[in-house]
Amino acid sequence: MTTPTPGHNALPSISEADFDAGINGSTAWMEHLEHGSIHSNDEDGGLGQTVGRAARALYEFEGKAEFRELSVEAGDELEVIKENLADGWSLVKDATGEVGLLPRTYYTFTTDFTSTPNVDLPPLSPRFHSGKHERDATITQETAKEDADTPILPQFTGDWSFPSFRQSLLGGKSLNRFSSFVTSGAEDFVLKGKAEDKLITKSIFNGHQKLSSTQSDDDNDESNRHSIVGEGEADRHFVDASYAWKEKLPPFRVLVHSPSKRTSSLSGAFTIYNVTLLFDAIPSESGSPPSSPTRITVQRRYSQFVILHTALMRRLPGLALPPLPEKQYAGRFNDDFVEARRGDLERYINRVTRHPVARYAEVVTFFLSCESDSEWKRIIPQYLSVPAAGPSFYTQVFHPAFNLDLEEASDAVERFDTHTKAVGKGVQGLRNIFGRVREARVEMSKAERLLSYSLLSLITAKPLASAPTTGIVEEDNHFSTKDAGLVNEAGAWCWREGCTHCLGMTKAMQKTSDALQHVADLYDDHARRTQLATHEELKAVAHPSSLYEGVVSTHRSTLSRYREATKDGNTDEDMASRCETVLNTTMAEMETYHSQKLEDFSTLAKEHLDGEIAFYEQVVQRLKAARSAYDKPSVDNLARSPRQPSIYERELENPRLGATPLPQPCPHVFDSAPMRPVSVAIQEGVGMILGPGSGRGSVFGRFW
Question: Tell me, which GO biological process terms does this entry list (predicted)?
């Protein structure tokens, strides 16, 4: 890389109003403009006399001027003005006075170090050195426990950004230009590592041995318990020999139900949901019936789900966690949207608790069990104030030693990437087709209803509404029901008075007409409720490639580092060992997808078939009941009394063939089309400008 000339990335004086916050805008720079001190006349870009912390660049970085980024060489002296900006960036100044953005993982502070009280850290070892004699060393139980109790000091490496409107416009792609290998802390862990990290790893696995029970379950040792200021058992994650996460808790279900509207003097109106945790009953050893499932119900609003998601992303950066449903911009209290949001939140929390590692995260159990508002307000800020786990996440991943085959790991990621992309494309096609199937069911409902009206019109001699609604053309000389010979006095479809045979048949045909109306209702309801639920569930298996993009990127980048560390004549076993830890993590995530895919598609297929079977069984039941009316003795019993008008006769003049628009699933976060809530918001804004009644009838409304 060429050394940037002075002024290469110099930032001109700029006001917030002049800044282009479009697709090419920098989220981090925008955050600096919004929260920093902006003075357009300052020559230093609005920073005034701000004094930052001294730092030094760790790696070479070629910044993009259009993104307000700063180019640096490894070893350059820097001044960090703002450390924590959006998407893992910092605002820094170099020795020439140029100011710009730099990834947080690309520098390290050289002054103002603070020591953790009551913690004695072992001396740092050289960045890269051979550690074969250390790997093979014998460690006593006392030494292992002492090393395991040494706190890990997490380094803040930036958050994985959660869903946003701008992401949805870009097809779910993050605006962060850096791969998850950087933002998750995997690169920092692989390249630098920590002396205390290696000690803990050796104490856990020596000759394929795992953490002993005395080390993991010491009830009297507070340092071994997970807390919001340190790391304990809930932060230790194990990968077995088959590259699968070891489950510490059995699966459980979560229901999100009973939404209600609330009003607060501070935050205004909002929707609150009941969240119920269900633990299945454990069968009794004595043979007695199992007790009822354990239930814990708390109340949560959408913003609290955002807090949970943010805390999880910071604490578990190496996992492919499900995306949070998008925030609604308009119609937040519409019944259809509230129900759709309820379903999306239920699917989200169940996919979180289904993950074998995320399931036992302390913030998850706190979210599902804290019933006190005061306790929530007291504890949750502490979760959010803890620095992101970054590389320290990988120091707590334990796996069998030397279990990685390079060729297998290389082949697995390529196959996995190809497979998830194909699955995503196929599921997207399936979602589109399923929408057409639902529309076809609605059309079938209209057809069945029209058939019912036509049959009723025939036996009553009452005209059915003309085209274009029904396609029937009325003739100039149509008959009137008052004309003799159309129906007799008993209402039978016959010119003869007292004809019991025609009376029985007429009443049976009327039952057929009524049955077809019920069948039409079943078709319509099936498309709007049962099939809508399946259509919504398809979102859960959509876009696996986007969800696991970070895992694939991290895996490939780590493989590259692993090859460098294991070159002949230049072996760095410490780096290779750390690469193995990251690769075990990514392989475990691939295995998690494999097991969940089996469960997901089997469940989807069975639920769809069960719904279809139940639907057709109801249709068959209605048709069988109508068919039985033509057989003796039913038809004879019908002929004993005059025919009563059908409740549907009044609709013949105005057939009930129009239907409200079929409800569609809310879009998935990774869908490439703009989010529907945003479209509604923009449309409503246009309506306000153009006046009442413009709405969809306006020119702009055609685009939505």
Answer: endocytosis; endosomal transport; plasma membrane tubulation
DSSP at 527:
I
Query: What 3-state class would DSSP assign to 454?
Result: helix
Strand order in the sheet with 53-57: 99-103, 89-94, 77-82, 53-57, 107-109
Residue 509: which residues within 8 A CB-CB, separation 6 or more?
Answer: 455, 458, 459, 493
CA distance 165 to 324: 12
Going by C-alpha positions, the residue among 143, 188, 210 that lies closest to residue 578 is 188
Rounded Cα distance, 681 and 696, in Å: 13
- Give residue 447's pLDDT: 94
- Count CB-CB contacts under 10 A for residue 635: 18
SS3 486: coil
Per-residue model confidence (pLDDT) at position 659? 79
CA distance 684 to 541: 32
| Among the listed residues 202, 349, 318, 303, the one whose alpha carbon sits nearest the alpha carbon of residue 585 | 318
Give how far the C-alpha of residue 519 lies from the chain's centroid of Cα atoms, to the nearest Å. Answer: 36
At 179 the pLDDT is: 77
Residues in the chain: 704
Phi/psi at 295 (nearest 5 deg)?
-125, 130
Task: Output the DSSP codes for 63-128.
Answer: --GGGTB--B-TT-EEEEEES--GGGEEEEEETTS-EEEEEGGGEEE-S---PPTT--PPPPPPSS
Tell me what pLDDT residue 590 has: 97
pLDDT digit string, tens, across residues 203-220: 333 333 333 333 333 333
347 touches 354 (CB < 8 A): no
Residues 6+ apart with CB under 8 A from 334: none
Note the pLDDT of residue 67. Answer: 73
Query: Which of 300, 249, 305, 254 lies closest to 277 in space, CA to CA?
Result: 254
Say what the pLDDT of residue 31 is: 53
DSSP-assigned beta bridge partners for residue 453: none
Residue keyed to tokens 């920073």: 47
Tokens of residue 452, six digits = 């019912």
Burial of 589 (0-12, 13-18, 19+ CB in 10 A): buried
Q: How far apart are CA 272 and CA 171, in angstroms?
A: 29
SS3 261: strand
Tell me which residues of the chain have a pLDDT lower than 50: 1-26, 37-50, 112-176, 195-230, 329, 476-477, 674-704
Where do we find the tokens 């053309």?
Answer: 473
Q: Which residues contact 670 (CB under 8 A, 6 or more apart)?
A: 171, 172, 323, 542, 543, 546, 547
pLDDT at position 539 is 92
* Whether the bond into 665 is cis, omega within 30 of 0: no
Whole-number Å distance between alpha carbons of 73 and 95? 12
Q: What are the tokens at 228?
A: 């919001």
Q: Which long-range contacts (CB under 8 A, 24 or more apart) does 463-470 make?
A: 463/652, 463/653, 464/652, 464/655, 465/652, 465/653, 465/654, 465/655, 469/655, 469/657, 470/655, 470/657
Nearest to 11 by CA among 23, 32, 2, 3: 32
Extended strands (E) in 562-645: 566-567, 570-571
List the beta strands (DSSP E) in 357-506. 397-398
Beta pairing partners, 571: 566
CA atoms of 99 and 44, how far apart (whole Å): 7
Q: For residues 55 and 59, give the distance between their C-alpha atoms in angstroms, rounded to a whole number.
A: 12
CB of 45 within 8 A of CB of 11?
A: yes
Rounded to two decimals, the pTM is 0.68
Cβ(151)–Cβ(197) below 8 Å:
no
Pick from 675, 550, 580: which is nearest to 159 by CA? Answer: 550
- Indicate the burial class of 486 (C-beta count within 10 angstroms; 0-12, 13-18, 19 or more): middle
For residue 538, CA distances in Å to 128, 285, 286, 424, 592 come to 47, 40, 42, 11, 18
DSSP one-letter code for 404: -
What's the rounded Cα separation, in Å, for the pair 499 and 329? 66
